[in-house]
Write a structure and sequence with these properties.
Elements lengths: L6 H4 L6 E4 L1 H14 L5 E6 L6 H9 L3 E4 L2 H9 L7 E3 L6 H9 L4 E4 L2 H14 L3 E8 L21 E2 L3 H10 L3 E7 L10 H18 L7 E3 L19 H11 L7 E6 L1 H4 L3 E12 L4 E5 L8 H5 L5 E3 L7 E7 L8 E9 L6 E4 L21 E3 L2
Parallel strand pairs: 1-17, 2-3, 2-10, 3-4, 4-5, 5-6, 6-7, 6-8, 8-9, 9-10, 12-14
Antiparallel strand pairs: 1-11, 11-12, 11-16, 13-16, 14-15
Helix pairs in contact: 2-9, 5-6, 8-9
Protein name: Diaminopimelate decarboxylase
Catalytic activity: meso-2,6-diaminopimelate + H(+) = L-lysine + CO2
Pathway: Amino-acid biosynthesis; L-lysine biosynthesis via DAP pathway; L-lysine from DL-2,6-diaminopimelate: step 1/1
């Protein structure tokens, strides 16, 4: 199913803006439900990927939970209709106010990332007369074979605790007041496009569960995080990620205990392909050795190329069948890193042509800034 861009409608809109294909989002959500059919699997949407209210309401109506990494995300989720008991809360730096908010909303679980945090949650929960349900986030030291900025499960990452520290954390959680230890939490990275790291994660979890069961400790919940990648190069060939392979990997390799829940926190794979950043060509600048297509979108609207050296497929949606030329596609921001693509092969461009930067539904609009005092880009939805 190809995304259809209503060019005539776009021509009257001020660019840049985000466009979301709700039919593709609907198909994606249905595919997640179909492939995560094991009743023990619980899927939470990672709100940090995209917190557009229209997107959130759509995902909430489909029956998913939500994964938050700040108190503001918790408030945003509640406003979108998510129940507190469907919210899990991660993050290495939870403030006292954020912890209080989570307890007030009776959230499903705090994913705890350090001993000091665990002690503070216990203290605040005791003061409030609440019980905090927690999972301990563990770094399994697995290389996810992804970008260093989005690898989160290695021993040297800031997230979670190292494996050798887990026994002490478990013992502490079992003794602190107003703490209910539900399970273990893992997240090894993002944009993972092969199953081997997930198989290795399963093997680590199986070993840990066997070890703790021998000590009489069981976990009612295992949280596997997210991390499933998408095809940025070919969004039309693979508009929906391989959820079948992803969930089957865990079904086949994770030794799930009776009555145990297995939680997933998917973000990019849910929303990335349904979103595109639409921008207009301002000028075609002829250099001595190359051509520049200067567009009105910049790194303030989509920062991933400048931040990660990420690449989004660029399409000329005004003139898709023109003669091919090579361009550096750059924005108007006063930074040399404000570049969406170098030596891009595109149908001939002229002033006023509309371009679509594909696969921008995740970490696009949500990471926009007002750098150079530019306004935030608006968003529009397909019917």
């Amino acid at each position: 199913m190809m995304t259809r861009f209503p060019i005539e409608e776009f021509s009257s809109l001020q660019t840049p803006f985000y466009f979301y294909d709700l039919k593709l989002l609907d198909r994606t959500l249905k595919e997640i439900k179909r492939t995560a059919r094991d009743s023990r699997f619980k899927v939470h949407y990672a709100i940090k990927a995209n917190a557009n209210p229209g997107i959130l309401r759509y995902i909430q109506a489909a029956g998913f939970g939500v994964d938050c990494v700040s108190g503001w995300e918790i408030e945003t989720a509640i406003e979108a209709g998510f129940r507190g008991d469907r919210i899990v809360f991660a993050g290495v730096g939870k403030s006292d106010n954020e912890i209080r908010l989570g307890l007030e909303k009776d959230i499903e679980c705090f994913n705890v990332e350090s001993e000091p945090e665990l002690r503070v949650i216990s203290q605040i929960a005791t003061e409030m007369g609440k019980t905090a349900r927690i999972a301990i986030r563990v770094n399994p030291n697995i290389d996810a074979h992804t970008h260093a900025y989005i690898t989160t499960g290695l021993a040297e990452n800031k997230f979670g605790i190292n494996l050798e520290m887990l026994p002490g954390m478990v013992a502490l959680a079992c003794t602190l007041p107003n703490i209910e230890l539900k399970g273990l939490h893992f997240h090894i990275g993002s944009q993972i496009t092969e199953n081997e790291p997930f198989v290795m994660l399963c093997e680590t979890i199986n070993r840990l569960q066997d070890e703790y069961e021998s000590r009489g400790i069981t976990f009612s919940s295992i949280n596997l995080g997210g991390g499933l990648g998408i095809d940025y190069a070919h969004p039309e060939r693979h508009p929906i990620p391989d959820f079948e392979g992803y969930f089957t990997t865990f079904h086949n390799h994770l030794h799930i205990r009776p009555d145990q829940e297995v939680h997933f926190e998917l973000g990019r794979s849910v929303v990335a392909q349904c979103g595109s950043l639409i921008t207009r060509v301002l000028y075609v600048k002829e250099g001595t050795t190359k051509k520049f297509a200067i567009v009105d979108a910049g790194m303030s609207d989509l920062i991933r190329p400048a931040l990660y050296n990420a690449h989004h497929k660029i399409e000329n949606i005004t003139n898709p069948n023109g003669e091919l030329h090579h361009y550096d596609v750059v924005g108007p921001i006063c930074e040399s890193s404000d570049c969406f693509g170098q030596d891009e092969t595109l149908p001939a461009l002229k002033r006023g042509d509309l371009l679509a930067l594909r696969s921008a539904g995740a970490y696009g609009e949500i990471m926009a800034s007002r750098y150079n005092c530019r306004p935030f880009p608006p968003s529009y939805f397909s019917e």
